[in-house]
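go over this chain:
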Amino acid sequence: MRALISVSDKTGIVDFCKELRKLDIEIISTGGTYALLKKEGVPALEVAEVTGFPECLDGRVKTLHPKVHAGILAIRDNIDHMSQLESLSVDTIDFVIVNLYPFKATIEKPDVTRAEAVENIDIGGPTMLRSAAKNYQYVTVITDPLDYDKVLTELKEEQAVSLETKFYLMQKVFVHTSHYDTMIADYLKKERNDSSFGPTLTMTFEKVQEMRYGENPHQKAAFYRQVGKQTGSLVDAVQLNGKELSFNNINDTNGALELLKEFDEPAVVACKHGNPCGVGTASDITVAWRSAFAADKVSIFGGIVVCNRELTEAMALEMQNIFLEVIVAPAYEEEALNILCAKKNIRVLELKDIDVAQPETALDMKKVNGGMIVQTIDAKLYEEADWKVVTETAPTNKQIEDMKFGMKVVKYVKSNGIAVVKDGQSIGIGPGQVNRIWAAKQCFEHAAELISNEAAKGAVLASDAFFPFADVVESAHIAGITAIIQPGGSVNDQKSIDKCNEYGITMVFTGMRHFRH
């Protein structure tokens, strides 16, 4: 029996080859793998000795030869195939151990050139893998060093690799090569700045970790990261304390982080079940935390807290008395970390580039039964030049600042969404209602119950989409709202405008909707 071995990842390969030789399996090898085996005293033949054709073109052509691929692809039970091999003086190859040029590591290097990336596109490796996998009944093909022991165990105990194992290894080949090819295609798409939606969609991800379960205990789940450099992404956060992240932790924290990225000033976002429950900004991060916490001291229980400045000792002292699932910050004061880590279950994460937003070309994907819907992310908040004051009363400078704050918050509230804000603090959030008036009333009830009966007086109401009726304005007036910001665009806009003028409420249209489903 013969084994052809050519690996970029040389983990365990010397010991594996020594064991193959003990089993009287002849080894054929190439390039750096051959040099390593020779150095370690493992007998091997160079591919050129088998093919009678030298490596050429700086190693671009080594294994692309009929004596290699005929030896791999011949069906051993086919008399005609075997007689052809004999007449062509070709011997069978029974094991193919190959992993590919490090394309991923190459493109993740800083300042990598296109020429470097292209040169690390493997040609011969995928071809050998696919040949061997196609002929899996007769050829054992290995791409992963973790499978060396499994194959050796069967060879030693059964004198052969089982068909079941060969089929398993075949599947791994096509996972491996499809992942590899997709990385290349994705890199080239980015190089061309191609943001089009083509006739096919291929994407590849690598597993970060297994989840204990999904949204519910009876669901299986795992966490994957997109291949390539990710900035400001939860996949690159370093966990400093606590249990492993759950499916819901990751989903909720991601939503909180995306809202946080809307703010340049010190900001804290508290999130629960994918919706913000408290948002605060200030000139000092500790004050911002207190504002976010005061916005909803009930819903924050078991929630997520993210901040865009170093988390202070004072914040940690106040947080330790609250049940929180996850805390994320770009850095921690030493004593703050000691305080938080004293609670063994709280998940404390550090994300240094927490303020880096996704590029506008990034994709938002949702799985539907039998398919996928894909869109570019909602990367814009509004164009301030498009703002239109539609009421007789214009907003004050303070109201304009609260309007901007309110639109940032409501953009990340599930539709139908309403946010009531004042002085850089959310005081009422109404998410995910089936009509807009319910979302508005929920905000006012929340503000009265959790803050004070007067909380909404003089506040700003922000809506993620237009008002279909004037009922939201009516309810806002009763609550004491003095300013409204919304996209506009309803056939009934004038009714809402008239109602605002009747009550002396100022209203601005942005012209940009933010549905979030």
Remarks:
- Residues 67 and 88 are 8 Å apart (CA to CA).
- The longest strand covers residues 275-281.
- The longest helix spans residues 163-191.
- The chain has 18 helices and 21 strands.
